[in-house]
Structure to design on (136 residues):
C-alpha cells in the first residue's frame, strides 16, 4: 500500500483500538455521572432538611424560653396570691379579735354581735378545711 493509504489504515486501526479501550470507561463515566446527579440531589435534599431542622430547633428554643417565662410569671402570680390570702387571714383574725374585745365590753348590742358571729360561721362552712373552714 501507498504511504497515504497506510497512514489512513493505521489511523483507522488506532481509532478502533482507542474506541475499544475507551468503551468500558465510557460506561463507567456514564454510571459515575448518574451517581453524581443522584448524590447532588441527595445533598440538596439534605441541606433542605438541615435548614428545616434548624428552623424547628430555633422554634423549639423560643418555645422553651416562652415556657420558662410563663412559668416564672405563674410562680410570681402564685406567690402574690399566697401573700394576699395570708393578708386576708390576718385581717380576719384581727376582726375576730376586735369582735371578742367589743363583746367583752359592757353595754354592747348582743343581738348584733350574735348576728355577726352567725354570718362568720356561715361563711366558714363554705371554706375548705385547709383554709380554716368548719364542716358540720
Amino acid at each position: 500500500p501507498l504511504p497515504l493509504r497506510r497512514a489512513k489504515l493505521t489511523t483507522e486501526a488506532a481509532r478502533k483500538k482507542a474506541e475499544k479501550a475507551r468503551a468500558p470507561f465510557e460506561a463507567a463515566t456514564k454510571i459515575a455521572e448518574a451517581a453524581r446527579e443522584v448524590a447532588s440531589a441527595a445533598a440538596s435534599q439534605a441541606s433542605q432538611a438541615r435548614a428545616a431542622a434548624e428552623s424547628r430547633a430555633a422554634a423549639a428554643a423560643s418555645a422553651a424560653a416562652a415556657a420558662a417565662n410563663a412559668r416564672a410569671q405563674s410562680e410570681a402570680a402564685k406567690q402574690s396570691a399566697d401573700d394576699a390570702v395570708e393578708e386576708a387571714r390576718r385581717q380576719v383574725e384581727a376582726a375576730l379579735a376586735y369582735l371578742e374585745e367589743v363583746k367583752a365590753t359592757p353595754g354592747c348590742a348582743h343581738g348584733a354581735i350574735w348576728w355577726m358571729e352567725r354570718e362568720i360561721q356561715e361563711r366558714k362552712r363554705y371554706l375548705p378545711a385547709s383554709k380554716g373552714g368548719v364542716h358540720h
User: Anything to note?
Assistant: The chain has a mean pLDDT of 90. Residues 3-104 form the longest helix (102 residues). The helical segments are 3-104, 110-125. The chain has two helices and no strands.
